[in-house]
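Re: Re: token formats

Sure, here are both.
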Amino acid sequence: LAPDLQICRKMKTSRCRKVREPQSNSAQRRVLDLYSWQRHGPWWQELQKVHSAFFFPFFLCPQQDGFWIYSEYCNNHLDACMELSKLMKDSRYQHFFEACRLLQQMIDIAIDGFLLTPVQKICKYPLQLAELLKYTAQDHSDYRYVAAALAVMRNVTQQINERKRRLENIDKIAQWQASVLDWEGEDILDRSSELIYTGEMAWIYQPYGRNQQRVFFLFDHQMVLCKKDLIRRDILYYKGRIDMDKYQVVDIEDGRDDDFNVSMKNAFKLHNKETEEIHLFFAKKLEEKIRWLRAFREERKMVQEDEKIGFEISENQKRQAAMTVRKVPKQKGKKRWWL
């Protein structure tokens, strides 16, 4: 992979650079980040020791987190191709890329072919390691390293696929938001990218203390509250949101609650760690309460993993989702995707 990335890097630094750079350089930045990690990572020297049989531990060192650069690259591949397509409509960039190709004495191949190479190769690593493990004796000194390296790369590719699935799902989230009446505040996609769980519960919020029936949509970072229309039960009205980054989930036993002075069954609380505000929820069944508690744990885990690997939705992806929603005709009586 390094030679392909070197080409991209040299295109950036070549003397043909006097062509004005495009406004959006995020795709180029992903290429350079990937090149820098591969070429200048602390484990690079270990890979150069071809005489040593013990080169698999580099998969297991702390720098393995660098493999998440592949995830960022793969999920931005479509944006990169779209940006390239725009540039190739300008004759100046056509001449620039062709000059770079001739300067590097490269074969006549489309640039999007080079952009695709990292995507193809990251998918091959688990297959190659699995094949190597198959023909490595279990008593060989390399066996445990190969097995561990295979586990790491399978996890990386699994996470790449998961992120791809989430990015493909943002159109549905934007479409759902557009269907909710009286929406207020920021868009869901400004902070969230996944609907984790949804359901209807009774809800009491201090200082009002009045029991209300609401439909709750738990996304990463936030939970949206909606009210069903009295006649058209498939129509939702926006009634607020809860910032999950500021709240702690508290499981409570059945009995009487001192904060709200009410009897509780299948209940739990959300407690604001900064303002001491409390939300009290009542599930209809114990199984439903357990499912909600599990969903809250999943939400926190997702947020932590996203922070670790730097997952975010680009502004271009948000715009594309908004454009898709505008193109979709509204259909009466159509079943909602979240039901």
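Second one below.
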Amino acid sequence: MSGVVASGSRAAGAATALAVMAVLGLAAMTSLMPGLLDDECAGASAAPSEHASSTIPSEYLELYRQAGSQFKVPWTVLAAIGAIESDHGRSSAAGVRSGVNAFGCCAGPMQFNLTDGPPSTWQAYRIDGDQDGDTDPYDPRDAIPSAARYLNVLLERAGGEITDAVLGYNHSRAYVADVLTRARTYADAPEHALVSEPAAECASGSEGPPTDLRESARVSAPRRYAMLPAWAMAAGRPAQLIDARLLANALWLLRSYRLRVTAAREGGHQTHGDGTALDLIPADAVDQAAWDNSALALARDLGWIPACGGSGTRPVCPLIPAMQFVGYEGYPGHGSPWTCRAPDCAAHLHISWVSPCYGTSAPTPPCSWVAAIPTGTSVSSHG
């Protein structure tokens, strides 16, 4: 795959890697088209934040949301790409409204490549979004659903993993971090901004996201362990087990907060013996902002506050009911690189679900019950 697309802003001379968009060269088309998946498989549909409503033109905001729903991709990610590439069509840079950019390849508000191929990336993924009989890369009514279609294909190839899909859009980790950070600001509840369930899981009828992080249910079955998927693990880490009753919770948290597992069930690791604990780091730990936007965001949504410090548990720490312990900034051996610096400290966030077996370090059979966050097909808002 090849073919880098430069954004309109960079074509105008802005020297930043964050303003570069890559639309990959021609790749094999998949048969995933709008309507193939049921609406309930689209994952959480985040409502726009005040920031989104005030900074995105109303026509573009509606188009992002419609295209996201149609192609089962997070509309917030489409909006973030549109912001970087053309300021939602408002940029006066070459190639945004006519012609091609300074690199001679790309056009429109989503900066599709018109010259790779044949067929070009635009020719491969273009959509007549407004049903006027024409596909126009400069028309947001065509360009935005076309970008959603392309992102859908990338998501399918990446098994529903949005970080890898955006990396397919542009081979820059900095670009990915910028897109995901912007996307979080566009959702009324940031933890819902990046949810996108893999097509395979939707097709199998798997449960949806948690209905409310503040709810908890005691779950007794299935009393067994399940293997985390390879994508859930931090780079170089082999897949590990987790209590099967917590798998849906864990995968949703990993996707929504852009986190990866460094330790799940393993012997000799305090609280990790019964498969109800995870050690986590950002999927793209490029800087402190990445930690704050992922690990810190999750810790806070689980009830952690700075006063938790060296406790990490109730009553000092006002955790949500399903959580037994959250270890982050201020807890010895835990936290972001800001407080937990190598080589003396391995930065990470630790979370443990409530169970009567909490604290064991020796590998044990699954506990009699665990407290899980109930899952469903809708998500309530909470900040």
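Residues 90 and 149 are 23 Å apart (CA to CA). Residues 207-372 form one domain.
- S.
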